[in-house]
Design goal:
- The complex is a heterodimer of chains A (about 110) and B (about 110).
- Chain A has about 110 residues and is mainly beta.
- Chain A has one domain: Immunoglobulins (Immunoglobulin-like, Sandwich).
- In chain A, about 0% of the residues lie in helices and about 55% in strands.
- Chain A is built from no helices and 11 strands.
- Chain A is globular and about 45 Å long.
- Chain A starts with a strand and ends with a strand.
- Chain B is an all-beta fold and about 110 residues long.
- Chain B has a single domain, classed as Immunoglobulin-like.
- Helices cover about 0% and strands about 50% of the residues of chain B.
- In chain B, strands 2, 4, 5, 6, 9, 10 and 11 form a 7-stranded mixed β-sheet that branches. A 4-stranded antiparallel β-sheet of chain B has the order 1-3-8-7, with no helix packed on it.
- Chain B is globular.
- The chains are: A mainly beta (about 110), B mainly beta (about 110).
- The interface between A and B is medium-sized, with 23 and 30 residues.
């Protein structure tokens, strides 16, 4: 059974600081996704990482993937209040095809304080 | 920008009743999914659907659940006899292709079973 673990689960940080959220998964995967969810809202896609060493950046967020270590990171640079949300990573086990359901981590609830 | 839509946004039902949740995926997408999120918990995969048949389903998707694409635009999730533990937010998602593609999530239907 595929397990996806995020840490930390809760993070309170100050504006302007940097921090990293970690996502470990338990089986071979060739795709890893990061989503953002605001309270009471749907999931917004942030990144899709498709290969070992993949790095993607959007604004103050940067995601990377190490398939050998089965680890992805989401790095926040110079945090601003608007980034307060819950961040989920999700993984699809390597299957070679088909409509694959995502296995999500528990999410990291991020609060950024002024 | 095209988006996934879902109706209703909220549904309250009595235990044992049948409910149908409706989704309109993005028009040129071929893969459709249902997920659920119990309040405060992680997002869980229920089922994926491609070419008018179920592609993959989780252990949660038992005989009380069914999915259908009754026409060229709608994608429905039916719960035949609701239980208290079915109370959750149900998200529909779609993707253009299964591999290397983002799954775009709808706004969700909040189901409350009394």
């Amino acid at each position: 059974e595929l397990k996806v673990e995020q840490n930390p689960l809760f993070l309170s940080m100050q504006e302007g600081k940097n921090y990293t959220i970690y996502c470990n998964y338990s089986t071979t995967s060739d795709r890893l996704y990061w989503y953002r969810q605001d309270p009471g809202k749907s999931l917004e896609s942030l990144f899709v990482l498709l290969s070992n060493g993949a790095v993607k950046q959007e604004g103050r967020l940067m995601a990377s993937l190490d398939t050998k270590a089965r680890l992805s990171t989401l790095h926040i640079t110079a945090a601003v209040h608007d980034l307060s949300a819950t961040y989920f990573c999700a993984v699809v086990p390597y299957s070679g095809g088909g409509a694959d359901g995502l296995t999500f981590g528990k999410g990291t609830h991020l609060i950024i304080q002024p | 920008e095209p988006e996934v839509t879902q109706t209703p946004s909220h549904q309250v039902t009595q235990m044992g009743q049948e409910v149908i949740l409706r989704c309109v995926p993005i028009s040129n997408h071929l893969y459709f999914y249902w997920y659920r999120q119990i309040l405060g918990q992680k997002v869980e995969f229920l089922v994926s659907f491609y070419n008018n048949e179920i592609s993959e389903k989780s252990e949660i998707f038992d005989d009380q659940f069914s999915v259908e694409r009754p026409d060229g635009s709608n994608f429905t999730l039916k719960i035949r006899s609701t239980k208290l533990e079915d109370s959750a937010m149900y998200f529909c998602a779609s993707s253009q292709r299964a591999l290397q593609e983002t799954q775009y999530f709808g706004p969700g239907t909040r189901l409350l079973v009394l």
